[in-house]
Amino acid sequence: MAESTTPAPGSPDQFTPLHSEREIHALTRPSLSYWQDAWVRLKSNTRALISLYLVLGLLAFTVIGPMIWTVDPSAQDVDQVSRPPGADRAARVVEPYKPWDGSVAVVDGERLQLADTPTNQAVRLIWPAAPGAESYWIYRNILPVDENSAKGLPLIELFGNGTTHFEDRLDLAPRIYYYTLVALDGTGVPVHRETLAVDVKRVVTVEEAVGRGLADSAEDLLVSDVVHLALHPLGTDYLGRDMLARLMHGARVSLFIGIFAPLLYVLVGVIYGSAAGFVGGQTDQAMMRFADFVVALPFLLFMILFKIAFGIGPGESGVMPMLVAMVVLLWPSTSRLVRGQILQIREEGYISASRLLGARAGYLILRHMIPNTMGVILVTVTFAIPSAIFTEAFLSFIGMGVAPPTPSWGSMCNDGIKTMLTTPHELIFPALLISITVLAFNLLGDGMRDALDARMRSTE
Amino acid sequence: MTKHTPANQDSFTSSAGRQLLAFGAASIAGVIVLMMALSWASSLTSTGSISTDAVDVTNNTLTLFLREEPPQLNSSLSTDTVSGSVLGHVMEGLLRYDEHNRLAPGIAERWEINEDGALFHLRPDARWSDGKSLTAHDFVFAWQVALDPKTASEYSFILYPVKNAEAINKGELPLSDIGARAIDDRTLEVTFERPIAYFDKLVAFSTYYPIRQDFYESTDGSYGSDAHTLLYNGPFVISRWVHGANLLMEKNPEYWDLDRAKVDKLDFAYITSDASATLNLFKDDKIAYATLQAENLNNAMEQGWDIFRFMDGSVFYIEFNHRPERPTRNLNLRKAMLYAQDSAELVFKVTKLPGYLPGVSLFPVWLQGVNTFFRQEYPAPRAQLNLEKARYHLELAKQELGVEEIPPLVLLTGDNPISNIQSEYYQQIFSKNLGLDLKIDKQIFKQRLAKMLSGDFDLVLAGWGPDYDDPLTFADLFASFNLNNRGRYENPEFDKWVRVAQSSQDVQERMDAFGEIQQILFDDVVIIPNYERGITYVTHPQMRGMVRRAVGPDPDFTNAYIVE
After folding, report:
1. Which residue out of A210, A239, A312 would a mutagenesis test of the B interface target, given it has the greatest number of B Cβ atoms within 10 Å?
2. Distance, in angstroms, between B117 CA and closest chain A CA?
3. Which residues on neighbouring strands pair with residue B307, listed in sequence order?
4. Please, where in chain A does CATH 2.60.40.10 lie?
5. Would the CB atoms of B428 and A403 count as touching at under 8 Å?
6. Of A85, A97, B271, B532, which is most buried, counting CB atoms within 10 Å of its CB?
7. Are B108 and B180 in contact (CB under 8 A)?
8. What pLDDT is stored for residue A387 in this prediction?
9. Which helix (H) or strand (E) element contains residue B495?
10. Residue A201 near residue A174, CB atoms below 8 Å
11. Domain A52-71+239-456 CATH superfamily
12. Shortest CA distance to A51 belongs to which of A293, A382, A356?
């Protein structure tokens, strides 16, 4: 019987205790509150974060913008009407405009010619009387004209053979124009036609330059100096008003309505909905039917009624009735949502426990119910903001909103759409801002819905 | 088992693909069928307009548009230019305007006018569109209808030169006392209330058009409300009128001068006032002419279209409210505003349309004077932009009104692109130059007229188009007895000169009176002239002979013809 040195299986010698690994169970991160966690998750959502910055940027654009860019949004710069961004602004200083009687210093008398330097103030044409002519037509084109092509804009018809000069002052821009003179005989048959290319230069008078703040005083300016017309970074509209300043001031109206109206009507909706949901029963039924009734009221009609009831006269801003109409008519959707949530929460165990412990209704609503519906409420607000901005833009677009000269993005779109094909910047900028704002608020709302959903709390 | 799996998967995906394909094909086919069905259905409902080209050579038809649904085709009630244009094609008065805008014989082939009255000899071959003869009685009846207080025609005043007309219109005399008598079927005798120098021009106006009694009474008050409740005597008849959508005119076979109308049909296939819509229709060769707005001018030049221009004869101005309770009653305030603005800047820099002339006077440039144009013989006094003078008058106005600041003024304006720009321009100009606060009250045409009538404004952007070819059509506007004097301007001196112009037979004396009126309008700043309107338009190169006119039906396609 051989004695084995190997310990018998199961003996305690075969077991060595592992070293303790207590640190595994230690918490790897500090405890996060609901709001901190929501913020962390919002930060990890790139789209929502960009939207948040955009919204903050818009607020800065609206609030701080007008302090930096102090141009009056209703000031008309008639020298630069419908000017796209980045247009040339150099202008030569000239003598004030004087009416012209057709006299000219030197005439060579052979053909259609200029009587004076062509400027955007006036182009003065003079020509010899054509034999047999009974009337003259002057045309202007922006494209070169030959014998067969269209002559362009008919500027004037001069009767009789006596008048052989014409002064064009109509909306002259610094560019090359092609003037065509057509002489007609008594029966309307052309007897003579010729075309002159005219290179128009931009000018400004001393008085205009000082009046528009381009120079400090008249003494500083000499005729033939070059000044630069007022800068309009985003161009001007159909009355020469600065687009950037108008967009900034327009944003005030748009964002005021866009933020205040939803805040107010969501607040009304929350109070109404939570009351209905909490009380329940017959009261709930009655309150919700009333909400259904409000939903059925036509918004536009009430908007007009409020405008009349408020005594908003002609030429006064319709922003306040718009705000009131929105608050009075748009709360039911929020109240329904909140009521549903409250009905659900009311039956939860912790509510019953709290009730057993003697909590009163006010405490239950404020401490337990509202915080638990906060996610839904915030999301409603962020989705209500873009829709309110849209409503304002729409109402201003159809002329129910702001009164001129106050701009709003919607009314600017309305003005811009008329000249969409020729000067698209007047429509594009406000439309772009509306789109960006609405998209930013929507994406932010989307991100907030994800971030505030308690069931999606970070578990890692 | 395992080796079958890929095959199974294959057959599964391919069958799913087939299903998807079949579903897609079915849905596309369904959509196509639906679209064809809808297109067929829509072709059933639309009442024609098969011709797709603006100028249809084979059917000798022109396709055109109307700016709006003609509001009133009853010639005794009609007031607006669209109705006037339509009526000008389908009706004819004693006299009419021809293609050179000269007065020409219409239903009357000869006439004599003297101090006491006029005698019109009607054509024997003048007929109504139902083939019955047109007689002098039809004119007498039409004028009685227009003067009947029950008709309440806004244009009844234009008949006042006829003896007893004013009294009849006020209900003081019976209709039968009218100073117009049918001596026989072919002869119409008119007696004047007082001597009148321009009666031949008046009878071309639509209120003077004939109406046949039996037909008028058979329509039971709906005369002119539809194509079949109107009897025609002009070169065209309305053969189809779909309200708000389109209107078709066909040549009138009963018209006395069958050669006058060159085309067989005028199809007003669109009724729209949207300038960009009409321009697009023109671009697509759907209509034969279109009006241009300032923003389309460059586009039109790039398209190489032939562009036309014409002065429609109307004058636009800021009218003040002269009622006692209004601050604008103060002459110095009005003067301040006059010197604080420059109509040339408005026209050349803001409205930017060729054909607009900066406003200087209530009398437009085309009015005839004694020998040449009125404005050449009587140059209008001009106010140059002068801010010092303007502010001086503003200070005087503040003292006289006893206020620190002028209260906000209401600027009543119409709802169209030009009025919008103009009102915002003036709002800024008066705010910048005088510190005045203007509230813009934008109203549709009808509402604006109602507010003008009730005096619910301080300033209004108003305009006036001529009814007949005489300076008086403008001159009597601000007479205290004229209902169209919406600002209630009252000046006995002004009224005196209007009376002179109305009753004098002497051209020189009348023109002198108009000169005095022009001076009073300037001295009293009754209005601030803004512009004389011009219209810039494009026409189809194959359409010729379209007539535009300041006085009379405009546009007029009666003489239009198609070239190949």
Report:
1. A239
2. 36
3. B538
4. 93-205
5. no
6. B532
7. no
8. 85
9. helix B492-503
10. yes
11. MetI-like (1.10.3720.10)
12. A382
Task: Tell me which residue in B348, B425, B428 faces A169 most closely, judged by beta carbons.
Answer: B348
Mean pLDDT in residue range B436-440: 89
Query: Prior bond to A99 cis, omega within 30?
Result: no
pLDDT at B3: 45
pLDDT of residue B5 exceeding 50: no
Quick one: pLDDT at residue A171?
83
CA-nearest of B423, B494, B435 to B460 is: B423
Answer yes or no: is pLDDT of B50 > 60: no
* pLDDT value for A101: 77
- Residue B40, pLDDT > 70, answer yes
Percent with pLDDT over 70 in chain B: 96
Nearest Cβ partner of B424 from A153, A239, A314? A239
A9 band by pLDDT with thresholds 50, 70 and 90: low
Q: What is the ipTM of this complex?
A: 0.75
Closest-CA residue of chain B to A73: B428
3-state SS string over B106-156? CCEEEEEECCCEEEEEECCCCECCCCCECCHHHHHHHHHHHHCCCCCCCCH
At B51, is the pLDDT very low, low, confident or very high (cuts 50, 70, 90)?
very low
Nearest CA in chain B to A414: B417
Task: Place domain A93-205 in its CATH homologous superfamily.
Answer: Immunoglobulins (2.60.40.10)
Q: Is A406 on the interface with B (CB under 8 A)?
A: no
Provide the pLDDT for residue A22.
Answer: 61
Coil, strand or helix at B439: strand
Backbone angles phi, psi at B301, to 5 degrees: -70, -40
User: Is residue B272's pLDDT more than 90?
Assistant: no
Helix axes A332-346, A281-295, angle to 10 degrees: 160
pLDDT at B111: 92
Helices (H), A14-81: 34-43, 46-63, 65-68
Query: Where are the extended beta strands (E) located within B40-102?
Result: 55-56, 61-66, 95-97
**Residue bearing tokens 């004389």:** B532
Our separate counts of H helices and E strands in chain A read 14, 10
For residues B213 and B142, give the distance between their C-alpha atoms in angstroms, rounded to a whole number.
8
Biggest distance spanned by C-alpha atoms of chain A: 153
Whether B119 contacts B110, CB under 8 Å: no
Residues of chain B with C-beta less than 8 angstroms from the C-beta of A170: 347-348, 352, 354
Q: What is the mean pLDDT of chain B?
A: 88
- What confidence score (pLDDT) does residue A1 get? 46
Residue B352 pLDDT more than 70?
yes
Percent of chain A with pLDDT over 90: 7
> Coil, strand, or helix at residue B182?
strand
Give the tokens for residue A13.
């010698």
pLDDT of residue A380: 84
Mean pLDDT of chain A: 82
Rounded Cα gap, residues A440 and A457, in angstroms: 24
Which segments of chain A belong to CATH 1.10.3720.10? 52-71+239-456
- Calpha distance A123→A103 (Å, rounded): 14
If you average pLDDT over residues A302-324, what whole number do you get? Answer: 78
Q: Which domains does chain B have, with CATH numbers?
A: 22-36+312-534 (3.10.105.10), 40-46+53-72+225-311+535-562 (3.40.190.10), 81-218 (3.90.76.10)
Contact A404 B423 (CB under 8 A): yes
A69-83, A276-290, B137-151: range with lowest mean pLDDT: A69-83
Residue B350 buriedness (CB in 10 A; 0-12 / 13-18 / 19+): buried
Query: CB-based contacts of B465: which residues, under 8 Å, 6+ apart?
Result: B81, B312, B313, B314, B550
Are the beta carbons of A215 and A221 closer than 8 angstroms?
Answer: yes
The two beta strands, B357-358 and A176-184, are unpaired
